[in-house]
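Page 42, continued from yesterday. The earlier attempt failed because a stray header line got pasted into the input along with the sequence. Redoing it now with the clean sequence only.
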Amino acid sequence: MPAWFNVVSDLAVIALLIAGIAFFRKPKHARGGNFLAAAALLLAMGLVAYRYQISNPAIVVLMILIGGFIGTMVAFRVNMIQIPGMVAFQHGMGGVAAFSVSFLELIRNPAELSTFGSFSGLFGLVLGAATFSGSMIAAGKLSGKLKGAPLNLPGHNLILIVLATVIVLLGIATQATDNNLTLIAILVIMWGLSGVLGVVFSIRIGGADMPVLISFLNATAGLAAAFCGIIIGNRLLITCGATVAASGSILTAIMCRSMNRGLIKVFTGSIVKGTQTSGTEVKEKEEIKTESSAPQRTLDELKAEAVDVLKNAKSVIIIPGYGMALAQAQFQVAKLAKILEEMQKDVCFAIHPVAGRMPGHMNVLLAEAEVDYDKLLEMAEVNKRFGTTDAVMVIGACDVVNPAAITTEGTPISGMPILLAQDAKRVIVCNLDEIPGYSGVKNPLYKNEKTLMLLGDANSTLLELIEKITGIPQNS
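This time it went through. Structure tokens are written below.
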């Protein structure tokens, strides 16, 4: 096959992949973008298989079929609550592929490798192994198998520095040995230490910082793949890996900016002081009334008042959170929003960038419930509306509406921009309980005199509110 054809075919695959990614910008085109990206990757696989001699093609085809079957079954069985953990797991599998290919290439013909190729392989091995172990920790935390809170070890930074230093020294040692068995032994040790590095790095990231970890692991998986592409001399793998690394890096930066925290502070577990970063001015702590002098009311009385608030409101902002995913209440949220719009009320959704357990978690849930994407407003835009909004509905959210992020110093969310729900005339909270969110910080909004706390399963609560508003019995 002429060289020009290989270049043109590679460029065509890359263009198709980028076109697929570009389609992700609009939800109505996202499914088509997925198909385009998948087609690009299938074409890339076909080109690789065509260009390189495969000694046992039947085995390769069998492995592709088995892997494809397992992936398809997992995708069909995973629900929206499990998606963050599955995404983290997939990043880990990308790491496995990267360090496996790098390891085999490094030991196959080490004498034929250039210095640049050899170090690329070492980077692919180290990043792949660290991404794998770090992703397993992230998946465990996101799925509830491990405690979600950050875990700081004694001398945590020193441990990371020692591990990184030893790995670098071992990498240099690989260039000074001609013995294949010694090389294999060194690479195995590097692989093990890199895995430990990934674990130590990830265990002290938790709580509200998990979306940052997810996007960062996405970037490292792509970078590891790009280094694999260098060692095997494959332009397609280099480009695809670099594209993933770039997108993951951009997303990581967006997540950090949304939390008003630097990447180093997130990864070192540093806590920042509270600062005012929101779009509207927030009252000082002493001006915020957090206790009501009214006698305690029953849940039924609170629900009745919530119905009156919604009926009389001209504008409503709905704020979804991870609790909505746990209750699988997104369909009832969408139904209530539609009912309120039919009553000629202005309804929109306020989306905090770090709501949920991964970037875009709330967008995915609401898209599943067929909520018009134009109704989903980002924090910078929607924060300007809260001061003139009649009612805000908080569905399973805590940290992203917690005024303590602004008024209290020294907490895991101090300085994080929040959705200014407390500025609205009335606030209705549909949460399971009053337990603090993932950050562990108590939310004074729950005690604000303008807030109605409708505790219990959000799905059931919303069904009851819909029934009271419409007068039509609802099936649970």
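Notes: Residues 78-268 form one domain.
Reminder to self: strip header lines before submitting.
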